[in-house]
């Protein structure tokens, strides 16, 4: 199927999110859309999928103009979409989710899920998805949920598949698998629109790249262009992707974690006798596939888990058993992995979000009273300092894009005297321009001689930031390796090898155990 | 949210004062139609509508205008009264009627902001009334001290009943809607039991308590001609307190945070257990205060119907006031006016009092749906200026169920 | 806080009330067993409690069931102690508590209370049959109310207006029945009455996106005022507008002769039979059909439903209207079965109890049905016991249903999660 | 909608006089099928027969009661009737403050009644006693029952009198008729489903005479009896004559315990209109006819031989003070 978008314009009130965009997608090709957060990519795709009505412009399929009154029409024309935020009903099984809207029924509208199950298994087998049609979606890892979304589209025989940031929550291995799948689909003639902020994979899958900035197409790029070039085109200014950071060996051990075990509600240990040290002035990156205990690790340090045993000492002081508030007040800064759920309160103003965990301490509070003028003043400062894009700090946080919400969280945490800083998935779904900014701020914190833990499923980020890298697998610590360890070794460890095994394996296969991109500096403190 | 740059007045204007006025107008029109259609004279005149249509129209007009004029005379200003005091008497009645509504609604509003749908003001009020009655007639103390104890007792009674809900909710996850509904009935039966036993007036076989001692009563503010009592000023003070709590205090910040996003609040170190309990304790205490206003202000003794429908009306008042203390204050005045005006309207024009309920509810609905009102009055709906976040604006939890 | 939250708010499916686990239920088990030991065993009033199994008017008389109170009390207390020990053991060995345990435990405890209370009455004999038939009758309007609520809430529209739907249903049945003189007319009007309330709910809550709780709360007041007003001005004029036809019981031949079950299940009015059908159909519909899948999707994740071509707001409107019809039909029970005329505020808060039953039953038709039955049972128990002349003051007896509900909700059921999108209006651009 | 327009000056049927008779109800409202309604009918009768102007107001809560009375005074009422104990001292205070206005207080009394006030109370237990006696005599099953709306004196007086009447019958006849439900209360005066269930429980239990004392809920017992499988089941109605008053009362109502609030209210107004106001505390008894037992109508023939004369004798004894119906 050949798709053409001609002069698509979409305005929300006075705000033009898409400004007469033209786009042609050829069958059997991968067409990538590249752009900053808020550039208008998702909006365009929602228009294409019939979710939004375009303000102007038209859509042609195989040269014929079409009009979609809803996603039903789009699907009828062979368009499938995997949304940036998954459109799965969490309490439904895979089969129910796939069936939804396209149900097979017996008499009297009784569902015939068996047919759907069969279809799911077929697709799943064909592409090696390995998805159980009867699993409940909310119990599935995000990577599998992603596949369910793709199955949904494929079962409906999509000729054009839109993938809006499909890799934002995937592990490297899952990403590689997805890239494979895209290859297979392409080979079978499916047209694909691909959206991602990760330039490495964009370069890997794309046939054509269109760059969008502020709702307008600003040009096309060749997949062979180098990453910095793509980034600059996207952001509209020169972007320096290499942080130019120096390695740090850190100072004294500040955070000591001993024998940390977390048992979940079902009695299963999700963190299993973990020992970790973090030094002043170093970044310890914690890598691991989602669901292997990283979340529990940071939540345990923050006092957010129950069923925790062992010991967590910060500068000799035991944190375990203390309330979240005490832990925060003892100088732990925390960026939770899900900013919109845990990081900010959407209906609160940006100003209030900037004092969310020190509202009851001087100078923000005097006794039991808040001091609005201080809150406002603080907000003005932080908005300026962290370049939070908003017309007013009194706007609610929900009006911010993801990247800007993340800046709010970071600004809030950095406005206290910290003794430890923990960031979980600090740049998930954030565009390269913002990533650069956020990374620099985290490094700056390290350079203030503060111990930092960065948890990420993103190998690039882990390698970029980590002075040392700890890898968790099934709740156990697989080992702690130097910051310049190669992706190969990290990948093996994330799959369950211990550090020694992984190094041995990599050596055996004759590949480098260190990351060639990483400047190899011997010790030395910044 | 603290938004120090905007004054309440500006906000009122921005929220579309015009629409509010039109909403009230529309509600009165609908109520007027009901009155007209059921008015005896109008129906009579309708019988010969084609013979002399003006009769019916003027009869209808008389019925409606008469009813509303009477309502105005009963609630705001009695232009027919001979004396100045008589003229302002209705206003004081409005304030008196608004007093218990105000405090109970503040309680409901605060619970709303914590994400709790508190249908239990009724029961909390009853517990407050029980304690303040008991303190009011058993103790013999000097005036300010005795009254103070009564008020404390009312606060305590309500706080216990509300706190119980908060505690059960926080501890077991039991749904507050179920808990509050059930506890209302438990409170009512407890009241019935006590009125037939420990609290029964000596020598009486009816379920009424003794009259509370004068030292335990709210003194009348404007002399014996008026029922307005000190409880009104206490309610005003409670409004000020609630305003401070919700807009200026750290606890209010916590309450709002928990109500808006429990997970984020917890991550930020807020003790959601404590906040849930405290929000319900405060809500209950405020409702308990209404109990004191009823017993020690207007009624002087306890009976089974002491709570009337105040606890339920309070929900509407809180919602109409968008769960903001200032808004609640004005909403309570409006409802107080209806209560006071309804009395006069019913008597002077024979219009059934139920019409007040109808008009009241329509006002709330219309005010909450500005586009509908604009459409009704042919005002062009401004495109793209959609009510972006109606549930936030209303200040009520959007859901009954689910731990947000 | 976990990976899950990345996609959409997690939520539980509509499963029936699940077994209580966790520490608090252990406390509850121990407390229950202890109370049983003290009350039923040590403080046993002794004597015999008699449970009659057929009505005085039944053709077929079954001998009454005498229970020796003290031995029964001891047996129950010991069984409960054993049950507590079993639960403790299960938890010690890290195993879950099977679903039947709390059910059996609760049943034993309730039987104990029942025997104890009957035995302490002046006339230690009650009719088990009328206790049970009454349970159904008292539950009936609640069941209709909660099913009506369920239809709305499953699509994500909070329905606080059940009370109003029942009341207008009752009113409309009286008016429509009187005018048409037929039961069909009465039932159709009743359904229409509920639909009227629903259409206001959808107008404000779906079209104008007013907070659904506000609309519901206010609609109840509106209906109370309106029916009160019309009752005073229209119905009580002596024009015969308040004399609806009666809905007779339709005993099913043969089946209704079965002892106990017959009078209980097979001697109902149309509304009574329809209640069972309704619960069953709703359960099947919700969990086994295309319609149900779509409805649940709309209530859990409207955007996801929208992206697969389901019309979210249309589904909502239709379901709320249907729910109104169901609740309205339930309201007709008041004026067609219970009593022969409409009176002011005659639903007396049943709609709120129905709402509680819906939540208690975790938005599941069968759960809500069982919750309503529990409530009906506790209510009727109160009357049956006071009729037998129990010592307990009537006001405390009257608290029974409410206290039992609180205990059940806080002790056994715990948190119940609403459909995830409940209360949130759905818009798109 | 057609018809001739009336000519100007066409007045109402009754000769209107310059006298305002007013009434304030308690929360029950004027259609409570009980004391409010009965008293209100007295008021309406005065409107019709005496030509007085009528103003009335329903109180939606206790809080409205004071303002309602005040407003009546403001409106220049000549006489103000209040019904129910919930009014407490409000009428008394108002009477003391407005000595030109007459007050009629139904179902409540004061130690000293001012001159411009008349309190109307009724010893309903006397008549209920007779009803209990008759019911016991009528009962084939040997079980009769009563239940109330709420636990208040005006209700429990009926119930206790009734139970004592049954006991009296047992004593005199050596019978063993049970009176059940003397502690059974619906808990309110509005929930018909609950009230109906109590009646159904009674019937299932073999109770064949039911006396509901629950205002509008009494109708549920009549319906239950009319729909029960046994034609012998009956109701003892209260306040008014259920034979006429209840829906389907002809077939169901054995007799009624009448509390003649309408008559006495009317009479009070009439007195004042005619300048014969007496004031003071009135107590309706069997003796003065303020309470009484309604006829048995169709059920007359189903009563045991000699019942009527036994009732007459009992009545005499009660009047003579030989029997205390509440003992
Ligand atoms: N429903 C809406 N109403 C108003 N404005 C919107 C709406 N949806 C998106 N926008 C605005 O349109 C712009 C484009 O948003 P869009 O989601 O398309 O960006 P994007 O390119 O997908 O960004 P990202 O890379 O972060 O996913 C943003 O500035 C956003 O604020
Ligand atoms: N209905 C709406 N009205 C106004 N703004 C909206 C609306 N819906 C979304 N937005 C805005 O659209 C912007 C972009 O939304 P989007 O979800 O695409 O964020 P994002 O930048 O992609 O973040 P993330 O990558 O973390 O998802 C946000 O500023 C959001 O507040
Ligand atoms: Mg996007
Ligand atoms: Mg994004």
TrEMBL record, chain A:
Keywords annotated in UniProt: ATP-binding, Nucleotide-binding
CDD domains: ABC_Carb_Monos_I, ABC_Carb_Monos_II
Record-linked Pfam families: ABC_tran (PF00005)
The UniProt record lists the keyword Nucleotide-binding: yes
Cited Gene3D superfamilies: P-loop containing nucleotide triphosphate hydrolases
Keyword Membrane: no
Molecular functions (GO terms): ATP binding
Region (Disordered) location: 503-526
ABC transporter domain mapped to chain residues: 3-239, 255-499
InterPro entries referenced in this protein's UniProt entry, alphabetically: AAA+_ATPase, ABC_carbohydrate_import_ATPase, ABC_transporter-like_ATP-bd, ABC_transporter-like_CS, P-loop_NTPase
PROSITE patterns hit by this protein: ABC_TRANSPORTER_1, ABC_TRANSPORTER_2
Record PANTHER family: CARBOHYDRATE TRANSPORT ATP-BINDING PROTEIN MG119-RELATED (PTHR43790), GUANOSINE IMPORT ATP-BINDING PROTEIN NUPO (PTHR43790:SF4)
Protein known as: ABC transporter ATP-binding protein
Automatic annotation (TrEMBL), chain B:
Keywords: Cell membrane, Membrane, Transmembrane, Transmembrane helix
Membrane-topology annotation of the record: Multi-pass membrane protein
Stored Pfam families: BPD_transp_2
Chain segments annotated as transmembrane: 16-37, 94-112, 119-137, 143-165, 177-195, 228-246, 275-295, 301-321, 328-349, 355-377
Region (Disordered): 384-404
Compartments where located: Cell membrane
InterPro entries, A to Z: ABC_transp_permease (IPR001851)
Designated name of the protein: ABC transporter permease
Automatic annotation (TrEMBL), chain C:
Compartment(s) of residence: Cell membrane
Classification via CDD domains: TM_PBP1_transp_TpRbsC_like
Transmembrane segments: 26-44, 64-88, 100-119, 125-144, 156-177, 183-206, 213-240, 260-286, 317-336, 367-385, 397-415
Domain of life of the native organism: Bacteria
Topology relative to the membrane: Multi-pass membrane protein
Record-linked InterPro entries: ABC_transp_permease (IPR001851)
Ranges in coiled-coil conformation: none
Broad class of where this protein is predominantly found: membrane
Entry keywords, A to Z: Cell membrane, Membrane, Transmembrane, Transmembrane helix
Protein name from the UniProt record: ABC transporter permease
Species for this entry: Zhihengliuella alba
């Amino acid at each position: 199927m050949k798709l053409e978008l001609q002069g698509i314009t979409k305005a929300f009130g006075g705000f033009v999110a898409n400004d007469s965009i033209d786009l042609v997608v050829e069958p059997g090709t991968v067409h990538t859309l590249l752009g900053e957060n808020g550039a208008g990519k998702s909006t365009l795709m929602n228009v294409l999928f019939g979710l939004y009505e375009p303000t102007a412009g038209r859509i042609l399929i195989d040269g014929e103009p079409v009009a979609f009154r809803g996603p039903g029409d789009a699907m009828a024309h062979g368009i499938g979409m995997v949304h940036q935020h998954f459109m799965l009903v969490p309490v439904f099984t895979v089969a129910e989710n796939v069936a939804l809207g396209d149900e097979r029924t017996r008499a009297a509208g009784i569902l015939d899920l068996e047919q759907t199950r069969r279809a799911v298994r077929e697709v799943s087998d064909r592409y090696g998805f390995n998805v159980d049609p009867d699993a409940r979606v909310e119990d599935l890892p995000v990577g599998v949920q992603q596949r369910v979304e793709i199955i949904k589209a494929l079962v409906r025989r999509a000729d054009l598949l839109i993938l809006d940031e499909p890799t934002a929550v995937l592990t490297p291995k899952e990403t590689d698998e997805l890239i494979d799948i895209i290859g297979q689909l392409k080979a079978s003639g499916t047209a694909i629109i691909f959206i991602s902020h990760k330039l490495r994979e964009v370069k890997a899958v794309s046939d054509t790249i269109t760059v969008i900035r502020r709702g307008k197409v600003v040009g096309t790029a060749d997949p062979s262009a180098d990453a910095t070039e793509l980034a600059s085109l996207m952001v509209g200014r020169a972007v320096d992707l290499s942080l130019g950071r120096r390695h740090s060996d850190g100072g004294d051990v500040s955070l000591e974690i001993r024998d940390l075990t977390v048992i979940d509600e079902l009695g299963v240990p999700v963190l299993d006798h973990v020992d970790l040290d973090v030094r002043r002035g170093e970044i310890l990156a914690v890598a691991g596939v989602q669901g292997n205990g990283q979340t529990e690790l940071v939540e345990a340090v923050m006092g957010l888990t129950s069923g925790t045993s062992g010991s967590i000492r910060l500068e000799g002081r035991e944190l375990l058993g203390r309330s979240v508030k005490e832990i925060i007040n003892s100088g732990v800064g925390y960026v939770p992995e899900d900013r919109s759920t845990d990081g900010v309160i959407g209906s609160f103003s940006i100003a209030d979000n900037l004092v969310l965990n020190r509202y009851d301490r001087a100078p923000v509070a005097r006794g039991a009273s808040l001091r609005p003028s201080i809150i406002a003043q603080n907000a003005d400062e932080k908005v300026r300092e962290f370049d939070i894009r908003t017309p007013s700090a009194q706007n609610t946080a929900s009006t911010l894009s993801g990247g800007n919400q993340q800046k709010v969280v970071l600004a809030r945490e950095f406005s206290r005297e910290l003794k430890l800083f923990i960031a979980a998935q600090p740049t998930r779904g954030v565009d390269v321009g913002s990533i650069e900014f956020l990374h620099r701020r985290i490094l700056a914190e390290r350079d203030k001689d503060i111990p930092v833990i960065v948890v990420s499923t993103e190998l690039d980020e882990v390698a970029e930031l980590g002075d040392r890298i700890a890898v968790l697998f099934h709740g156990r610590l697989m080992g702690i390796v130097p910051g310049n360890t190669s992706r190969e070794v990290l990948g093996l460890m994330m799959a369950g090898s211990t550090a020694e095994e992984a190094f041995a394996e990599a050596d055996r296969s004759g590949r480098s155990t260190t990351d060639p991109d990483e400047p190899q500096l011997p010790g030395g403190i910044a | 949210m603290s938004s120090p740059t905007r004054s309440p007045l500006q906000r009122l204007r921005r929220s579309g004062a015009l629409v509010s006025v039109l909403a009230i107008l529309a509600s009165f029109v609908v109520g007027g139609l009901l009155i007209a259609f059921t008015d005896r004279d109008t129906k009579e005149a309708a019988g010969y509508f084609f013979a002399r249509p003006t009769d019916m129209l003027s009869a209808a007009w008389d019925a409606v205008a008469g009813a509303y004029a009477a309502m105005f005379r009963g609630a705001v200003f009695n232009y027919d009264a001979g004396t100045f005091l008589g003229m302002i008497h209705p206003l004081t009645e409005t304030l008196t009627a608004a007093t218990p509504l105000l405090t109970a609604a503040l309680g409901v509003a605060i619970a709303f902001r914590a994400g709790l749908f508190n249908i239990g003001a009724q029961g909390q009020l009853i517990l407050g009334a029980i304690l303040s009655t008991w303190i009011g007639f058993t103790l013999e103390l000097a005036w300010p001290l005795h009254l103070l104890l009564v008020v404390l007792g009312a606060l305590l009674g309500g706080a216990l009943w509300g706190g119980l809900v908060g505690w059960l909710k926080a501890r077991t996850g039991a749904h507050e809607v179920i808990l509050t509904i059930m506890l209302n009935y438990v409170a009512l039966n407890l009241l019935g039991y006590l009125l037939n036993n420990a609290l029964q007036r000596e020598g009486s076989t009816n379920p009424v308590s003794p009259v509370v001692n004068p030292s335990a009563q709210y003194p009348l503010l404007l002399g014996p001609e008026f029922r307005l009592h000190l409880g009104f000023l206490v309610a005003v003070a409670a409004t000020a307190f609630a305003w401070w709590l919700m807009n200026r205090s750290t606890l209010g910040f916590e309450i709002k945070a928990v109500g808006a996003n429990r997970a984020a609040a917890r991550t930020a170190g807020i003790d959601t257990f404590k906040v849930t309990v405290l929000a319900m304790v405060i809500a209950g205490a405020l409702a308990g205060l209404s109990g004191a206003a009823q017993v020690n202000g207007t009624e002087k003794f306890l009976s089974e119907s002491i709570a009337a429908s105040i606890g339920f009306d309070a929900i509407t008042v809180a919602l109409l006031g968008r769960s903001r203390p200032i808004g609640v204050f004005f909403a309570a005045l409006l409802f107080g006016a209806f209560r006071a005006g309804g009395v006069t309207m019913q008597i002077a024009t024979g219009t059934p009092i139920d019409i007040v309920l109808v008009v009241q509810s329509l006002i709330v609905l219309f005010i909450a749906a500005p586009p509908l009102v604009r459409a009704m009055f042919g005002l062009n709906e401004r495109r793209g200026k959609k009510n972006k976040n109606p549930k936030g604006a209303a200040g009520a939890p959007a859901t009954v169920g689910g731990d947000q | 806080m976990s990976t899950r939250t990345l996609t959409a708010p997690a939520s539980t499916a509509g499963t029936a009330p699940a077994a209580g686990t966790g520490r608090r239920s252990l406390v509850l088990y121990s407390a229950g067993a202890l109370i049983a030991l003290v009350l039923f065993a040590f403080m046993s009033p002794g004597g015999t409690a008699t449970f009659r199994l057929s009505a005085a008017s039944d053709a077929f008389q079954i001998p009454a069931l005498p229970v020796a109170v003290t031995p029964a009390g001891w047996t129950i207390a010991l069984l409960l102690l054993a049950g507590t020990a079993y639960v403790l053991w299960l938890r010690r060995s890290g195993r879950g508590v099977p679903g039947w345990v709390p059910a059996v435990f609760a049943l034993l405890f309730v039987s104990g209370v029942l025997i104890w209370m009957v035995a302490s009455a002046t006339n230690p004999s009650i009719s088990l049959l009328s206790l049970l038939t009454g349970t159904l009758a008292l539950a009936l309007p609640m069941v209709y109310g909660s099913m009506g609520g369920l239809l709305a809430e499953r699509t994500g529209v909070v329905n606080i207006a059940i009370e109003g739907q029942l009341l207008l249903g009752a009113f409309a049945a009286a008016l429509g029945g009187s005018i048409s003189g037929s039961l069909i007319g009465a039932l159709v009007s009743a359904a229409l009455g509920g639909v009227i309330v629903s259409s206001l709910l959808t107008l404000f809550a779906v079209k104008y996106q007013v907070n659904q709780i506000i609309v519901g709360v206010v609609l109840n007041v509106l209906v109370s005022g309106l029916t009160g007003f019309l009752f005073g001005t229209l119905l009580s004029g002596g024009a015969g507008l308040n004399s609806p036809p009666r809905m007779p019981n339709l005993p099913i031949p043969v089946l209704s002769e079965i002892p106990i079950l017959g009078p209980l299940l097979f001697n109902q009015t149309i509304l009574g039979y329809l209640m069972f059908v309704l619960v069953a159909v709703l359960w099947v519909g919700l969990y086994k059909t295309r319609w149900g899948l779509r409805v649940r999707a709309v209530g859990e994740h409207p955007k996801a439903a929208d992206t697969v071509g389901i019309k979210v707001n249309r589904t909502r409107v239709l379901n709320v209207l249907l729910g109104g019809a169901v609740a309205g039909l339930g309201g007709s029970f008041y004026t067609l079965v219970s009593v022969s005329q409409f009176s002011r505020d005659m639903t007396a808060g049943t709609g709120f109890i129905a709402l509680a039953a819906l939540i208690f039953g975790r938005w599941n038709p069968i759960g809500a049905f069982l919750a309503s039955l529990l409530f009906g049972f506790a209510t009727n128990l109160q009357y049956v016991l006071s009729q037998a002349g129990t010592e307990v003051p009537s006001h405390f007896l009257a608290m029974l249903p409410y206290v039992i509900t609180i205990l059940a909700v806080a002790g056994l059921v715990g948190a119940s999660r609403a459909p995830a999108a409940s209360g949130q209006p759905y818009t798109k651009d | 909608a057609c018809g001739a327009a009336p000519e100007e000056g066409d007045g109402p049927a009754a000769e209107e006089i310059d006298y305002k008779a007013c009434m304030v109800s308690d929360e029950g409202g004027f259609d409570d099928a009980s004391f409010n309604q009965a008293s209100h009918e007295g008021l309406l009768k005065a409107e019709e027969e005496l030509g007085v102007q009528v103003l009335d107001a329903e109180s939606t809560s206790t809080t409205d009661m004071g303002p309602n009375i005040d407003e009546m005074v403001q409106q220049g009422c000549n006489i103000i009737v209040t019904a129910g104990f919930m009014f407490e001292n409000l009428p008394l205070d108002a009477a003391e403050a407005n000595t030109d206005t007459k007050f009629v207080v139904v179902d409540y009394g004061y130690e000293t009644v001012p001159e411009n006030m008349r309190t109307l109370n009724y010893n309903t237990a006397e008549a209920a006693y007779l009803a209990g006696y008759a019911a016991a005599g009528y009962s084939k099953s040997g079980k009769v029952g009563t239940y109330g709306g709420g636990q208040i004196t005006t209700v429990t007086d009926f119930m206790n009198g009734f139970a004592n009447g049954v006991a009296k019958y047992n004593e005199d006849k050596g019978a063993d008729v049970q009176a059940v439900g003397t502690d059974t209360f619906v808990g309110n005066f509005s929930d018909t489903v609950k009230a109906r269930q109590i009646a159904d429980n009674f019937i299932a239990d073999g109770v064949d005479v039911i006396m509901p004392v629950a205002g509008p809920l009494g109708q549920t017992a009549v319906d239950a009896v009319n729909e029960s499988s046994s034609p012998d089941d009956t109701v003892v109605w209260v306040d008014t004559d259920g034979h006429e008053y209840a829906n389907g009362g002809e077939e169901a109502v054995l007799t009624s315990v009448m509390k003649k609030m309408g008559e006495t209210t009317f009479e009070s107004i009439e007195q004042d209109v005619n300048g014969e106001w007496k004031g003071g505390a009135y107590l309706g008894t069997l003796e003065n006819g303020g309470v009484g037992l309604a006829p048995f109508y169709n059920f007359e023939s189903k009563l045991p031989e000699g019942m009527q004369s036994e009732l007459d004798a009992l009545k005499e004894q009660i009047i003579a003070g030989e029997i205390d119906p509440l003992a």
